[in-house]
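TICKET #2291
ISSUE: user wants both folds in one file
ATTACHMENT 1:
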Amino acid sequence: MHSIFLVGNIAAITLLLAMGAQLITQKSTLARLFAVMFVLLSVYLSLTIADYQAIHPALSFTVARLSSLIPAVIWLIAFHLFRDDEKIPLLIWPIIVGYVSLRAIGVALLNLDILPNSTGFYYTFIVTPQVVMIALAAHAIFMAVAGFRADLVENRRKFRVTFVVGVSVF
């Protein structure tokens, strides 16, 4: 059973990286965002099959931080897809940097055993970033659902359903 899981993960990683490599060469911002998402998803999947901690703790730390960017990229994709010709609000960048930084600081402090794992510490550095990641994914779903009836572009309207289901499963 473990070998089936391993082969499936390796196949998924290979497919995601191939799709990401194909899309990164495109000039479209949306295509590049999908490429970044595919690469980040492959990094996330690799966490289940590679022992990055055994290779080097800094590599493990970096790979985990990259994985935490997935909800932000999903939000950016949803914004580009479902908000016609709107500029990305500047507030999103400090939100993304903030939750990634909080999580990175919290994990580093835990791993280095610098601060005790108190309730305040846990909620500040572990729970808050997780809530922000969930909120970004939920808002991406909301953007897809909110404009469904008013969307006059048939292909995009159909994609909204796929997008909502995909993000919900994620």
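ATTACHMENT 2:
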Amino acid sequence: MAKINFNHLYYFWMIAKEGNLSRAAKKLFISQSALSTQLKKLEDQVNKPLFHREGRILKLTEAGQLTLTYADKMFTLGHELGSMLKGNLPANRTSLKIGVNASLSRNFVGNFIRPILTKDDIELVIDSGNQEELLNRLNTHQLDLVLSNFRPNPNIQFAIKSKLIAKQQMSIVGKPLKENQTFEFAKDLKNYQLLLPGNGTEIRAGFDQVCDAQAVRYNIMAEINDMPALRLLVRDSNCLALLPIVVVQDEIRNNVLAEYCKIPGLFENFYAISLKRHYEPEVVKALLSREAEDILSI
């Protein structure tokens, strides 16, 4: 059999990643009909169908799955080689593209990237989005790293590695108490309006377990899963909020807000997600080697 045409294989790889001819064609800047023709040429060459259709979605056949396994290795190594060679050119700056889950605290992100903010040889790009979108962009090498407060789905279809880079105990936070005023979680929580993560989240489920165990009642003012929005609401209202204090580290430092108490056994986890690869940029290695206490320090 003749050697496989790498252009045809690359087009197949992009279609497989997108799961859709039209999206792949847009990313490749060619027409959908031209892309379909290139795919047909590859299928004719290997004498096997690589996709079957389910409505508008293309699903890989068994031969397609095998082909994708090899294509992933080939093109991932190609991207890594390009990154390595680019990084070794002294005249070039190193580019670092980080995706940030939209619900993640901006303070945490700022703390995480702090060591490279003053480096002239690093070009930093930060994009925000939902987890699925960011992981898809990671898989197509549009991002080098994804920061999230959610553990990635174990059923994800491409090779990633997830590192727990920090965890912080959840706290009840509000406006500073008046002189001689105290706060006892079990006794006083019911006297305040509370800002909480929504039902269905791990943090909310854990908080409700703690409250049930201690027979604590509470009054909900709002349910918010977005940490940046939660920061603004607790700062600008008289409510209390359940959050990790890194979210409001500046407000605590400036005595705008205060930590009332910590919730036992309840933590916010922070993950760094990247592709499994042979070569990892030195700047990423350095960021991931930092101690959690350093990242979370106020």
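RESOLUTION: both attachments delivered.
EXTRA DETAIL ON ATTACHMENT 2: The first strand starts at residue 51 and ends at 54.
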